[in-house]
Write a structure and sequence with these properties.
The protein has two domains: 4-130, Rossmann fold (3-Layer(aba) Sandwich), CATH 3.40.50; 139-305, 3-Layer(aba) Sandwich (Cytidine Deaminase, domain 2). The longest helix is centred in the middle third of the chain and has 19 residues, at 149-167. The protein has 306 residues and is an alpha/beta fold. Strand 1, helix 1 (13-23) and strand 2 (28-33) form a beta-alpha-beta unit. It has a six-stranded mixed sheet with strand order 6-13-11-9-7-8. It has helices spanning 13-23, 40-44, 58-67, 92-100, 106-118, 149-167, 190-201, 206-212, 225-231, 263-272, 289-299; strands spanning 4-8, 28-33, 50-53, 72-76, 123-124, 139-140, 173-177, 180-184, 243-246, 260-261, 276-279, 285-286, 302-305. The protein contains eleven helices and 13 strands. 37% of the residues lie in helices and 16% in strands.
Length: 306
């Protein structure tokens, strides 16, 4: 009989997968990766069988998998890779996988982990397997549309750039403006890259940024109505520019690290003063797609799925 292990990092994706597995009568055990904060609903559900596992204690994890007679596994949720540079103490199994990896890039480490599970006859499922309804259709999905030639050029430029950095397994996100690269995601993650880009672009002239994307110039001055709106978090009041592009790798392994966005991505973009988000319709996981687009509209952002 098949028995699934849901390896759970942070966020809502493990919760969605657990609910879908339960609906499909798939027996599963939740393996909470302790370096990530477990979704509150999952943490509070005492009916679930759970294991606490660490990135560093793979020997214990493998022992649990054997004891639970796991035959399949799925890996979902965010884990801050910086933790590998901090307080993770590795046991002998973790050291073996770490030493076997040619480098410490995400794909390299994952494939060593996948090989270890395969030696135990455990099949890792594609992340999409239990995430029906977590994708957006292709198109411009928000009320606000990209209209200026400059913005359309930035969308193309940023999209191709994010694909290229993905092919090197550096990151999934590039932030661009006027065909300049403001930020490229590395170990810090998408939100931090967006914030860094916002800090750079907001040092320039809001009027010039506005004009560059073909919109009427309206600089934001201290004490202006725009500042008042911004201080109260009202969408659409401040000048916005810059494009965030997040794409899968050209050789994306469907079992691991599919690009994912949520309302927090939008909130981070809004706070940074950025304008548009470009993702891939078939490869980007979106938590609660309808809520996601509604929030983008409320914030006056553009969302494009290609």
């Amino acid at each position: 009989m098949k028995h699934l292990a849901i390896f759970a990092g942070a966020g809502e994706l493990p919760l969605i997968a657990a609910k879908n597995a339960a609906k499909a009568d798939i027996p599963f055990t939740l393996y909470h990766i302790t370096e990530a904060e477990l979704n509150a609903e999952l943490a509070a559900d005492i009916s679930l069988k759970k294991r606490e596992v660490s990135l560093g204690t793979l020997g214990q994890t493998f022992a649990y998998l054997k004891k639970d007679k796991i035959t399949e596994a799925i890996l979902l949720g965010k884990i801050e890779k910086q933790r590998l540079l901090q307080d993770v103490v590795r046991d002998a199994e973790a050291d073996r996988i770490y030493a076997a990896a040619a480098d410490r890039r995400d794909d390299t480490l994952f494939h060593e982990f996948a090989r270890a599970l395969a030696s135990m006859q455990i099949h890792i499922l594609p992340q999409k397997s239990l995430l029906d309804g977590c994708f957006l259709p292709a198109g411009v999905l928000t009320q606000k549309k990209p209209e200026s030639a400059s913005l359309l050029e930035d969308i193309e430029f940023g999209y191709e750039l994010s694909r290229k950095i993905g092919s090197l397994d550096i990151g999934q996100t590039a932030v661009v403006f006027q065909k300049m690269v403001l930020a490229v995601e590395a170990i810090e993650g998408t939100d931090a890259a967006i914030r860094r880009a916002g800090e750079i672009i907001n040092k320039g002239s809001p009027t010039e940024a506005h004009r560059a994307h073909g919109e009427p110039g309206a600089s934001v001055r201290s004490g202006s109505p725009q500042d008042a709106h911004r201080a109260h978090g009202e969408p659409g009041a401040s000048v916005r520019s810059g494009v965030v592009c997040k794409t899968a790798k050209t050789s994306q392994d469907p079992r691991f690290d599919l690009p994912a966005v949520g309302t927090r991505t939008l909130e981070t973009m809004h706070a940074a003063g950025l304008q548009a988000l470009v993702i891939e319709a078939a490869h980007t996981l979106v938590v609660n797609p309808q809520e996601f687009i509604a929030r983008a509209d409320a914030l006056g952002l553009i969302v494009i799925a290609r």
